[in-house]
Each structure stands twice: as C-alpha cells, then as structure tokens.
Amino acid sequence: MKRTANAVWEGDLKSGKGRISTASGVLSDTQYSFTTRFENGPGTNPEELVAAAHAGCFSMALSAQLGNAGLTAASIRTTATITMERDDSGWAVTASHLDVVAAVPGASRDAFDTAAQNAKAGCPISRLLNAKITMDAKLEGA
C-alpha cells in the first residue's frame, strides 16, 4: 500500500509560500508558509499534519486492540501534540503526546490500559516517528 501527497513551494523561506495536496483530495492546494509553521499564520504546516496523522492512526490502532480483547469503543477521542525543537543539527520533531479519552462499554481499566499501550507502540505513525511518544489515556466511566 502506498499513499501520496505533494507540495509546491515558491520563493525564499521567510516570504515564500507553498501548497500541499493529497491524492484523495482532502487537501487541495492547502496553503502553508513560514508563518503557518513558526508563527500563527493562516493555513497548515507539516507538524500539524503529522499530529493529525498520529491522532488518527492511534485511534484506529486502539479500536483494533480493543477488538482483539472483544471490546468495541463507543468513541475514541485523541489529540496529538507534536513538539518541534532546534538543536545543533537543526529542527526536529522530538516528541508526540497523545491525549486520549475513550468510552468503551464493558472495558476494565486494565484491559483499556493494555490496549492503549499496545496501540501507542504499534500504530504505524508511532513507529515512523523518531521521537519520544507519551500518552495520557482516560477511560470514561472508569
């Protein structure tokens, strides 16, 4: 399986601008720039897209892990927060923190925690990132 996206950049780093598109069309010429990445300008940025990918990937992985335990989530809400820092070799994504709140009828806290830890470790985006991955996972009603 392969998925594609493309980016076009025009100009220098600080005053230039770019557009990102995905093969699915979900993103189509979506703006990104220095200000969307390092300030709070309108548009998206690569780190925000990585955060979205990690949140979505983790949520699906948790659903699968719960299914392996005979459980079905009523809802899984995940927020991923990406940290980008600069060191001597340049900028790097150094961490991703997952905040998870799930409603899983019939789940024990132990079963939920095991599924969440397995999902955190096994999610393909978690495995892609060369970063520290942390998580706060809350089971609603537990």
Describe the structure.
This protein is of the alpha+beta class and 142 residues long. It folds into 2 domains: 34 residues, no CATH class; 94 residues, K homology (KH) domain (GMP Synthetase, Chain A, domain 3). The chain is built from 4 helices and 6 strands; from the N terminus they run E-E-E-H-H-E-E-H-H-E. A 3-stranded antiparallel beta sheet has the order 1-2-3. Helix 2 packs across helix 3. The mean pLDDT is 94.
Q: What distance separates the N and C termini?
A: 38 Å
Oligomer: single chain
Number of separate strands: 6
Architecture of the largest domain, according to CATH?
2-Layer Sandwich
Number of DSSP helical runs:
4
CATH level 4 superfamily of the largest domain: K homology (KH) domain
List the helices and strands and how they pair.
Blueprint: E1 5-10, E2 17-22, E3 30-33, H1 34-38, H2 46-68, E4 75-87, E5 90-103, H3 109-122, H4 124-128, E6 132-139
Parallel strand pairs: 5-6
Antiparallel strand pairs: 1-2, 2-3, 4-5
Helix pairs in contact: 2-3
Keywords:
three-stranded mixed sheet, 36% strand, single chain, alpha+beta, three-stranded antiparallel sheet, GMP Synthetase, Chain A, domain 3
Brief summary:
This protein has 142 residues and is of the alpha+beta class. Helix content is 33%, strand content 36%. The strands form two sheets. It has a three-stranded antiparallel sheet with strand order 1-2-3. Strands 4-5-6 form a three-stranded mixed sheet, covered by helices on one side.
